[in-house]
Structure formats: C-alpha cells, structure tokens
Write a structure and sequence with these properties.
mainly alpha
Length: about 425
C-alpha cells in the first residue's frame, strides 16, 4: 500500500540477480517472488524481458513438458517445473503471444507421451494450456482444429483428471456466440460425443469410464446453464442436440449391456442417463446455476423421448435386478452377506424411478408386463437392512400411487394385486 501511494516500487531481489552478467533462469526460478513480479500491478519489466528470451522460453516449456532428472533431490525435483508453469500462466501479454506463436507444438507434444501421464507434470501442462485458452481462446481453437489428432490425444489421457478438466475447459472457453458455433461444429466433426460413449464399456479402464461419464454429464449441465441464461428456444443448442439424440442413448445402452456384464460401465452409463433425465425434468441444477440463481430449464418432451428409447432395454434392466453383476461379499454388523444388493442394481432402480416420472405409456406397459413392481417389493424385503434400496422403492411406489392418466389403473393392479403390497405390509 505504501509503495502504491508514492508511485514507487521497492528494490527487488530479482533486480539484483538480473544485474549480474551471468544470471541464469535457475536462479530466477529459485526466487519466491518471481511469480508475483510477472503479473498484476507490480510487473517487473526487466524480469519479463529476461523471461521472453528465446533460450529461456524454450527452457520453461521444457520444464513443464519433460520429466525432471532423477539426479535432482526428490523434494526439489518438481520445484522448478511448478514455478515454470506459474510463470508461463501469468497471462502477461508478451509471454502469451510468444507461447501461441512459437511454442504450441512443443507444449502440445506432451500429450504424445504414452499413458499414464505423470500427474504432477500433467497438472503443470494443463495450468499453462488453461491460461492460453482463457487469453487466446480463438487462436487455441483454430490450432486444435488444424491438428487431425488433437481430440484423440486428449482422449488417450482422459483417465488423468486434469486432462479431463482441460477438455471441459476447452468446451466452455467460448468468448462469443460465433466462436461457440465454431467449437460445437468442430466437436461434431471429431465425433466427440460418440467417442466418449465408446469409452463406457467393458474392457476399458475404470478411470477412463468414470471421466468420460463426467465429461458427458458436465457438457449437459453446461448446455442447460447456457440455455437458462439465453432467450433462445430450448432446441436451438446443437451441442445439446448431439448429447440427447436417440442414437446416443442406444449406443450407451448397448455398451453398458455388453457381455461379459460389468458393473463399472453400468454405473457410469446410468450416471449419464440420470443426469440427462434430471436436467430434462428440471430436477437438478448445475453448480453455475445454483450460484447465480438462474431459473431451472426443463424439457419434458425430450425426457419422454429418452424414456421411449430406453423402453426396449427394460427387459435387460429387469434381468440385471434379478441377476446382477458379481459383487464382493462382506460382513456387516448383522452378519455375513453372500450376495450384496450392489451399486449396479441401485443405479438401475434410481433410473427406473426417474423414468416413471415421465409417465410414458409404453414404458408403463412394459413395467407391468415384466412385473417389475413385484420384483422391487421382493428385493425390498429380501434386503431388509438396505436403506438406500428402501428409499428408492418407496419413491417408486409413491409415483405409482400418485400417477395420473390412462395407465393408472393398470399400474395400481400391478402393485396391489400382482405385488400384493397390502398383504406384505
């Protein structure tokens, strides 16, 4: 505050280093104030002039993209790479301009490494890339569009959480409506949505499946957040159209139900469907909307279309309730559980509860034909200790009791006559 008042800057230790004829980048990175003096109101121009020298920029990029020498003491091994990433992401115009003009190929080359990536180096790399997308989003988008393998290289490392975050940053980094149109068209050209869905199936590492599911879900939340802030009609979003198309639902279900049946793709695939239906029914809000108090945007017609697409798969979902993927037995306070209810069956039940809320006639008829209310009541009493199961069955029964329309009598008969609800109670 004192120095700002008198329009002066205190003498910097870095200035002393820069005054030396043999000053090295290593000495500069050792100074704890180097990042502060690269940005903000107290930018050290002499420091920036030193940093943007060609040999120093090359070394900084090398630090964040190449493994440090094992000869360096372990506790200090990542000190300079971390500092280098902070300097490169300081968003000083001269640094950003040099990075996008001369160093993008070297930076992006980090993704050419075979998986798994070093998580620390990946975090340094994504810190710099995220900074560039914030400052030069159009330039970065054009760069990726001109690389045929850009999206595939990102997806190759999607099991690394920071790479998943980078992909999400790319998707939401639009500066303008025109840029969003270009971005969505590129995502369609590289077939991103189908590629993500193809990662949710047996045989794919669980981390890849989890992160692919998260990206799909976050893309949907982002689309509904955008729509909540926009005066455009609900069906005007091309990205949302890609995410909600019937072919996506069919491919997702096909991958989930592929043999051998595996609980991992079932869990992550249903998570995507739950997010889709919850948003369409206006039952959940994205973090952005919750913070900004945006109104909930619902699209019940789209939800009914999704449920209609799921109806042919109801037989397979019911079979999973009866014959679930193998789960590890465990010992609880009340005794040994040889066949747990399992997370996969709970996810199926949660999906059924969402589907019932749409009151799609074909779905209701299939529920009755398969006698699903009876199955759920059987499970309710079989797993008498599972409160998560009980909560979902209670919601399912409540929806049947409070339902309206031509199918109401049929559903109540399935519940009270076939399922013998009163007699069981």
């Amino acid at each position: 505050m004192f120095w700002k008042q008198f329009k002066r800057q205190p003498v910097s230790a870095i200035d002393g280093l820069l005054s030396k004829e043999d000053c090295t980048l290593e000495e500069i990175l050792d100074d704890d104030n180097v990042v502060q003096e690269c940005k903000g109101d107290m930018v050290n121009k002499r420091l920036l002039d030193f940093i943007v020298k060609e040999e120093n920029m090359d070394e900084l990029v090398k630090l964040v993209t190449e493994e440090p020498s094992e000869d360096i003491e372990e506790k200090n091994r990542y000190k300079h790479p971390n500092r280098a990433s902070e300097v490169l992401s300081c968003e000083a115009n001269v640094v950003v301009d040099l990075l996008v003009r001369h160093h993008l190929d070297k930076l992006w080359g980090f993704l050419e490494s075979p998986p798994p990536l070093n998580p620390l180096l990946a975090s340094f790399f994504t810190r710099v890339l995220n900074s560039l997308f914030r400052c030069k989003s159009q330039v970065m988008l054009d760069y990726m569009r001109n690389r045929d393998d850009a999206m595939q290289q990102v997806l190759n490392h999607i099991e690394t959480s920071v790479i998943m975050d980078l992909l999400l940053s790319i998707i939401i980094s639009c500066d303008s409506a025109q840029m969003r149109v270009e971005l969505v068209q590129w995502l369609a050209d590289v077939n991103l949505v189908q590629r993500l869905v193809d990662l949710i199936q047996p045989g794919i590492p669980s981390e890849k499946q989890r992160n692919a599911s998260r990206v799909l879900s976050e893309m949907m939340r982002h689309c509904y957040t955008q729509l909540a802030q926009s005066s455009e009609t609900l069906r005007s979003d091309l990205l949302l159209d890609m995410l909600e198309q019937d072919d996506l639902v069919q491919l997702l279900m096909k991958n989930m139900m592929a043999t051998p049946l595996d609980s991992v793709p079932v869990l992550h695939g249903i998570d995507v469907l739950q997010t889709m239906l919850s948003l369409q029914l206006g039952l959940c809000q994205s973090i952005d909307r919750m913070q900004a108090n945006f109104p909930v945007v619902a699209n019940e017609d789209a939800a009914r279309q999704v449920v209609a697409s799921l109806t042919p798969w109801l037989t397979e979902l019911h079979k999973m309730l009866l014959e679930p993927p193998k789960a590890r037995p465990f010992t609880a306070t009340f005794g040994y559980v040889a066949v747990p209810f399992g997370a996969a069956r709970l996810a199926v039940l949660q999906l059924l509860v969402l589907c019932v809320q749409t009151n799609v006639s074909e779905f209701n008829q299939e529920i009755v034909r398969l006698n699903i209310p009876t199955t759920l009541l059987d499970l309710f009493f079989q797993f008498w200790w599972n409160s998560f199961l009980h909560q979902q069955v209670e919601q399912f029964i409540g929806l049947l009791l409070c339902g309206k329309g031509d199918d109401q009598d049929m559903l109540l008969r399935a519940l009270f006559i076939n399922g013998q609800l009163l007699q069981r109670i």
